[in-house]
């Protein structure tokens, strides 16, 4: 990843700390010149808290480039384990039934069919990263001279493509 050493980079990454390590190893930049924002979300909301953090960093830290990075194997967390924990809790079972009813009958307010589908999210890793890049790039408060791009990391090969 060849970059200008004086450039200020802002990375939006998942919660996997290995990505941060890979970025440090494969960058010829001073770590002081890049900022990292970690998130569970692959697609950010244009007017959510994460977007606000990105905008604040652009102006407070004079960010030159925003890179939305993800690792190929990071696409889906272990959702079955999460669902098992949620569905084990008796006090949540009635609430889940209520949510499932709302998801099924109150469209378009609830875009998925069940609480499980909502937690899983939709889209492929590449689609979700591309959507996030476009949301940031086209946000009215992001200056046009700030570059926004994606970075998909194949962690098995430690290669960037």
Structural account:
The protein has about 160 residues and is α/β, with parallel strands linked by helices. Helices cover about 40% and strands about 15% of the residues. It contains six helices and five strands, in the order E-H-E-H-E-H-H-H-H-E-E. The N and C termini lie close together (about 10 Å).
At a glance:
The chain contains six helices and five strands. The chain is an alpha/beta fold and 161 residues long.
Percent in helix: 40-55%
* Main pleated-sheet profile: 5 strands, mixed
- Cα gyration radius (Å): 18 Å
First and last CA, distance = 10 Å
Number of helical segments with 4 or more residues:
6
Shape: globular
Q: For this entry, what is the oligomeric state of its chains?
A: single chain
Arrangement of strands in the largest sheet: 2-1-3-4-5
Task: Assess the beta-strand content as a share of residues.
Answer: 15-25%
- pLDDT averaged residue by residue: 79
Low-confidence stretches: 157-161
Report the count of strand segments. Answer: 5
The class by helix and strand makeup works out as: alpha/beta
Order of helices and strands: EHEHEHHHHEE
Task: For the structure shown, list the relevant keywords.
alpha/beta, single chain, 161 residues
Task: Set down the secondary structure blueprint.
Layout: E1 9-13, H1 17-26, E2 34-38, H2 49-60, E3 65-71, H3 79-88, H4 90-105, H5 115-120, H6 125-137, E4 147-154, E5 159-160
Parallel strand pairs: 1-2, 1-3, 3-4
Antiparallel strand pairs: 4-5
